Amino acid sequence: YGADDESGVNNSATELNIEFVIRDNCVTLFGEGLAPVASPVYENVGIYVAVLSEEPGLSAGVTIDGNTIDVRSGIGIKVDDNYRGDTYEVGSVVIIRNNDITVGPSGTGIYIKGGEVCIIDNDVKGGEYGARFDYCEGIEFDGNTFKGNEYGIYALGTREAVIEGNAFLEN
To answer: What distance in Å separates the CA atoms of residue 17 and residue 86, rounded to the nearest whole number?
Structure first.
């Protein structure tokens, strides 16, 4: 941040493009209070990403790809626009693809709070919500399988959602 690049030019935060990838991990949480998360995240979360942007133009490309997540009580993947009580705008598109997510009966496979998200080719099973979206804009679902959840997809205050080519089995 603010450091000189190879040409000697100083880059400000408004010019940064950051790529962040979480790929090919196995995450297993079998009890209450076992997730390694920072306050104020109170639930078990397999993968938690807060993509926050205070400055216009800051881009942080986040991809969550090829992970196996088993959470008996809590959330498989959470993308949040709130950190330590402050709400931010999610600063980029988040791509969640090719993940195998199993959650317990009161859990949520994928939980998105704000932002633009592409959810592609995931298997989500066993929870209260396969995928839940609160106040998002620009959600794309394609090629996912939601099986054995109470609700395949639940959206609250979400606009511009494209849902196509998904399988909803025994929800």
So the answer is: 23
